Amino acid sequence: MTDPLKAFLQANALTSPAFAPDSRYHGLDTAQWTAPDGTPVTYVRRRFVPPPERFATLREHVVEMGDRLDNLAAHYLGDPQQYWRLCDGNGTLRPEELTDSPGRRLRITLPEGVPGGTDVEL
Known about the structure:
The chain is built from 3 helices and 4 strands. The chain has helices spanning 4-10, 69-77, 83-89; strands at residues 30-34, 40-44, 57-62, 105-109. The chain is elongated. The mean pLDDT is 84. This is LysM domain-containing protein.
């Protein structure tokens, strides 16, 4: 049995990518796994967190009690759904790690690979 999503994608039926350009999954390939009962399951291939050194620091934020990553992303990046960029820039898979320790310094970075200065403001 052909997986309908994969067939749809392969037929170029989409006029835009499966994920928006600002999604952390943009550009990732899909793969297919077959369940023991023969049902095909399409999934997005694993995304690896890029090394933090690929990100130019714009500034730092000192974590305060009650900080939330979505609020920090809204404040610094203009979009709360871009919290994953803060995770990437700080080399973590677990978002809660970034705000669970008041006093921690979070890097606010440019997108991966965009060159920039290291002008740090607190």
